[in-house]
Amino acid sequence: MRSFIFNIAYWSLSGVYAIVCAILALIPGRTVLMHGLRSYARATLILMRVVCGIKIEVRGTPPKDQPVVIGAKHQSWGDGIVMMAKCGDVNFVCGDHMLKFPLIGWVLKRCGAIILSNQGGPAARDSLMAGIVRSQGEGRPRPVLIYPEGHLTEVGSGMRFRSGVWHMARALDRPIIPVATNLGQCWPQQAWTKYKGTAVIEFLDPIRPGEDRDADLATLQERVETRSRALEAEFATSGKASHGETRPMTGTARICA
């Protein structure tokens, strides 16, 4: 029942904010629009906590208003929402599948988001380079959030990190901030069912990209995946202490139904 209530409330909230932010996008600049988007993100976190008992714990220091590239683990639809709520005025790289939602394409363009083709290839590279040029021209640098895997992954698994994060960090001359998470154990990918618990978002030590792209990507992936596995194990064992049983790695112990 709790998952049902949350999803109805979440999608209703999203619909209202889509309209509100589309109106705010008419205002010159992006300051007011970004306030609206962050308000939506914070409201969603409140719904997660109050309705489903999903708490967010932040470890490390979120790079608010800092010129960095954030290379984050992506295992939940809620990842971007949490990052927007915790990282201030953050720009983000997203796939063109987001354009299928009404009004979203307009809002994304107005807030300066970098929209890549999910098919990859020259179109994705061109849109990435256009986003880099646009980011270089911003008067006040802000964090750029990118998910190097390019797709949502299941808890306990990962995909090869794509090179876009490295190219962006090199072109902008910014460090990469790795981010690990276990949010997928509470909100798995795009699943309807949610699970009660504390999800951790952990900001790790920065990586300054050098000349060796493959080595830098391997370092980033190793840090993100190793810490994400550790956070998943921590989530699973915390269920044993709290409820007398071990939570599965997929987070299926405390269902919000």
TrEMBL record:
Highest taxon, organism lineage: Bacteria
Keywords attached to this entry: Acyltransferase, Membrane, Transferase, Transmembrane, Transmembrane helix
SMART domains: PlsC
Chain residue ranges for the region called Disordered: 236-257
Matches recorded under InterPro entries: Plipid/glycerol_acylTrfase
Pathway assigned to this chain's UniProt record: Lipid metabolism
Pfam families for the chain: Acyltransferase
GO biological process: phosphatidic acid biosynthetic process
Stretches assigned to the Phospholipid/glycerol acyltransferase domain: 68-184
MF GO annotations: 1-acylglycerol-3-phosphate O-acyltransferase activity
Transmembrane parts of this sequence: 6-27
SUPFAM superfamilies, alphabetized: Glycerol-3-phosphate (1)-acyltransferase (SSF69593)
PANTHER family: 1-ACYL-SN-GLYCEROL-3-PHOSPHATE ACYLTRANSFERASE
Record-given protein name: 1-acyl-sn-glycerol-3-phosphate acyltransferase
Naturally occurring in which organism (per UniProt): Maricaulis maris
